[in-house]
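Reply to dn_fold:

You asked what the input looked like. This is it:
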Amino acid sequence: MYLAELHGKLPSRIERMEDILTSNVFSLFKYSTREIFLQGYLNKLGFNISNQEANEAEFIFWPRFGDNTEPDLVLIVGDYYLLIEAKYFSDFAEDQIQREIRGGEIEAKNYGKDFKLIAITADYYYKEDKFRVLIPLDFIPHFKWTNWQQVSAFLYSVLENRKNIKKQERDFALDLY
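and this is what came back:
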């Protein structure tokens, strides 16, 4: 599927493109050597994840909360319940983040995990004004922003510095990079 997208063979509806991008990137993290890709990426974001925790991580794509809110991905890994909301060309819906926070807090509590929300956008830098209106002040310590450029830089770094990666994993990462 991801090769079809990369070659412009899929419909270009923006929401679908974001879903496919999210699926492709996090499928690499799910199906490739997790100690290299998943653990490396989460550690880069500031989450201290062990090899065992990376290998035991649970990926839940597009879960649905009780109010029908549907985040892009939840990763249950180590002590964390990580809710990932990814954007590329579109923006966050008016109360989307607040609904995801409410639902994520409930689910994290049910799992006995520390809830964190990670927003991935195409912005080149953190736009404080944008998130000031989206993220409640008391939730800021539980919020992490990153961008697709940092994902690409991470993949580039792995490909440059880890020469022992399996050929199929290297090819998959190169397709995304």
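The chain has a mean pLDDT of 89.
Hope that clears it up.
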